[in-house]
Amino acid sequence: MSTIAKQLASLSISGKIAFAVLGILVIHAGFRLLETTLPRHFQQADARYRVRKVVVFLGYGVALLFLIAVFEDHLGSFTFALGVAGAGIVVALQDVVASLGGWFAIGTSKLYTVGDRVQIGDTIGDVVDISILRTTVLEVGNWMSKDLHSGRVAQIPNYLVLKGAVYNYTQGVRFVWDEIKVTLTAQSDHGLARTLLLGIVRDTVADSMEEARHTWSRVTNDYQIENPSLNPIVALAVNSGSMEFTVSYIVDYAERTVTKDRLFTKIADTIAKNQGRLEWASSSSTSSTRVPKTHRLRRVLARQQARIVVAQACLCLRFRSKAWVGS
To answer: Which one of 57, 74, 91 terminates a domain?
Structure first.
């Protein structure tokens, strides 16, 4: 070891730089090979990911130690040079430095981990990787439904977690509130509609209610919040002459689209079985409610036209009678 150290110390600065570049390339190739082959020996995806990240960080550490060993006798001058240029480096690479800070905050504060569904800025998706500078997210939504993957991969700078809110759909509670709207005609039986809608939504989300209650009770123990009611809610509002029912319910964040499909399928079948008492509101039904007003307007116009005709006939008779008298 002392012989190697002496040989390194005898090298010129240009020789040390060339040796450092060569050594970094060898270290990169070796750890790149480990990063590719070592995770294959683990069956679970989470274990493979963790092993890969450990290999990457070990590679960074070995490269740093190698550079320190190569430039050991120049560390004093390098430290002084870095101290002088530090302010300029921070200003020029402020986004990089901020991303490093964001990466540290993600790890220490546990804002999210790989596998979580998060919203950072306007991007919603599942976290597939967290690197020093960026978080890789498999996008959800956009032109697709709210819980379906669009197929795009988003690279989000880590500094964004320090500048705005981070919404985590997975951490603590997997269940979120969602709602659908059912619009019926004003002639529909609103009492029957409310009863049927409540029965449908309770039956649809019954399987997940127990898990949702257990999850929320665990969260209320960790935070100073009350244990909320998770029962489905049906609220009625009158909108443009129609009855609009808002059905709110708790659902797993990954099953929003599937749950909506089940609800609307059952609701459509139920309304079809109760024709006469329940009817979908539509443009045709709206126009049918306006037909009596149209008929009244037509009758008024017909009366006015009849009065005009009678008045014209009276005038004709008056002129004829005057003509007979004059003759």
So the answer is: 74
Calculate the CA 259 to chain-centre distance. 17
Counting Cβ atoms within 10 Å, is residue 49 exposed (0-12), middle (13-18) or buried (19+)?
A: middle
Percent pLDDT > 70 in the chain is: 74
CA distance 59 to 31: 6
Total domains, the chain = 3
Q: Where does a domain end: 253, 270, 285?
A: 285
Residue 51: pLDDT over 80 = no
Are 240 and 198 in the same domain?
A: yes
- Whole-angstrom Cα distance, residue 86 to residue 79? 10
CA distances from 114 to 110, 111, 123, 151 (A): 11, 11, 16, 17
Tell me, yes or no, whether 109 lies in a domain: yes
Same-domain pairing of 179 and 276? yes
Q: Per the structure block, which two tokens stand in for 318?
A: 């008056």
Q: What is the pLDDT of residue 310?
A: 60
Q: Is residue 23 part of a domain?
A: yes
The verdict on residue 305 lying in a domain is no
Shared domain check, 229 and 250: yes
Cβ proximity of 143 and 154 under 8 Å: no
Six-digit token string for 229:
């009611």
Tokens of 63: 């490269």
Q: What is the tens place of the pLDDT at every residue in 132-147?
A: 889 999 998 888 776 7
Q: In sequence order, what E strands does the chain have?
A: 117-120, 123-130, 134-140, 149-157, 166-168, 175-185, 233-239, 242-252
User: For 212-221, what is each residue's pLDDT tens digit?
Assistant: 888 877 777 7
Domain that holds residue 114: 105-168
Amino acid at site 36: T
CA 136/CA 128 separation, integer angstroms? 6
Statement to judge: residues 280 and 179 lie in one domain: yes
Task: Check: pTM over 0.85? Answer yes or no.
Answer: no
Q: How far apart are the first and last CA of the chain?
A: 148
Shared domain for 55 and 132, answered yes or no, is: no
Domain presence at residue 88? no
Q: Tell me what the mean pLDDT of segment 154-171 comes to.
A: 89
